[in-house]
Design a protein that fits this description.
By secondary structure, the chain is an all-alpha fold. The protein has one domain (6-164). The chain is 91% helix and 2% strand. The chain contains 1 helix and 2 strands, in the order E-E-H. The chain has one helix spanning 13-164; strands at 6-7, 10-11. A two-stranded antiparallel ribbon has the order 1-2.
């Protein structure tokens, strides 16, 4: 604290004025400093509020993205489940088709064997019939040749007998 000198009617006005000037200068400096600090605080608050607003905006965006992604994941999970069901159904259908194909194959093979057996039997019977016919024709031909030879032989004898007769 500063002490002032005493003069006739109180303190020395020059010292008091100098002191007041110093005090005023210091107070003005402090006021400016306070105003600057207030501005800085206001800017920091503003910046902090902007950051909070930005963070809130970012959080809201992230929440929205999270909701969208959760929705898409759920959708993909449903699609995956549907695909699994479709694959399972396709496998069952495939097994049924295979089973039906094997059964049809067995039926077709069985029918083919029966038909083949029938055809072979019919062919054998036909061949036997043709062979019998052929044997009969061969015997008939032999008989016919023998008869023809006999008839020709008789005719030749007749001609010889006619030649022996002279007229």
């Amino acid at each position: 604290m500063e002490k002032f000198s005493r003069v006739l009617r109180g303190y020395d006005p020059e010292e008091v004025n100098d002191f007041l000037d110093k005090v005023i200068a210091k107070v003005e400096l402090m006021v400016k400093d306070i105003e600057e600090k207030d501005k800085q605080i206001a800017e920091l608050k503003k910046s902090e509020q902007e950051n909070k607003d930005k963070q809130m905006s970012d959080i809201k965006k992230l929440e929205q993205e999270n909701l969208n992604l959760t929705s898409k994941v759920a959708q993909f999970e449903r699609m995956e489940e549907n695909l699994k069901k479709a694959i399972l159904m396709a496998e069952k259908t495939s097994e049924q088709i295979k089973l039906t194909a094997y059964q049809e194959r067995d039926i077709i093979v069985s029918d083919a064997k029966k038909n083949a057996s029938r055809i072979v039997n019919e062919a054998l019977l036909k061949a036997e019939s043709i062979e019998k016919e052929s044997d009969m024709l061969r015997r008939n031909m032999i008989v016919f040749k023998k008869r023809l030879k006999d008839a020709l032989s008789t005719q030749v004898e007749l001609i010889e007998d006619i030649e022996k007769i002279e007229i």
